[in-house]
Amino acid sequence: MESGRMPHEDDPRVESYLEILESALLDCYLSCHEEDALVEMADSLGLSRRLLDEIHHDYLRSMARVAVADGVVTDDERADLIQVAELLGLSADRVDAALAMASARSACAEFALAAGDVLCLTGSMRRRRSEWEAELAQRGIEVGSLTRRTRLLVAADPDSATGKARKARKYGIPIINEDALSRLLGARTSGE
């Protein structure tokens, strides 16, 4: 698994530590010399145990994003993630959590609204329905009733057991909350 695509923090101390960490984990093995170099680097940079834990968790999440990027996590990639988690002092359940988070982000990043899409709004939302309808119409997105053609159900409570929510689940239509709709609209919609 590639590690060269791991994101680096703005903090130069973290970047210095990550350079050594990436180099050391290139073969998914930490020799005694590499462990000593990492401890020495962390100590000389004044990185706290808490910050190191955050760095290690971020590193694992970054590896998970790389593994998920092509849409398939192979057995070898999973084994690498588990091995790296162990080397970083993280439990194996962190691998599953990192993969789940990476998969969710990947799915969210791939989803885009386009002019002509139909959304259904349901429930009491913080923003007035008329405001949502105006913004969506401005983008060429229609607000309508829930049918098989509906691209998305926006619900005040995505866990709702209302008729619309049950119908959306039956049709395989994603159900999101108002905040998620704001994020989707904040991203470029396809066709803009």
TrEMBL record:
Could you tell me which SUPFAM superfamilies the record lists for this protein? BRCT domain (SSF52113), TerB-like (SSF158682)
Question: Which InterPro entries does this UniProt record tie to the protein?
Answer: BRCT_dom_sf (IPR036420), TerB-like (IPR029024)
| Gene3D superfamilies reported for this sequence | BRCT domain, TerB-like
**Name assigned to this protein:** BRCT domain-containing protein
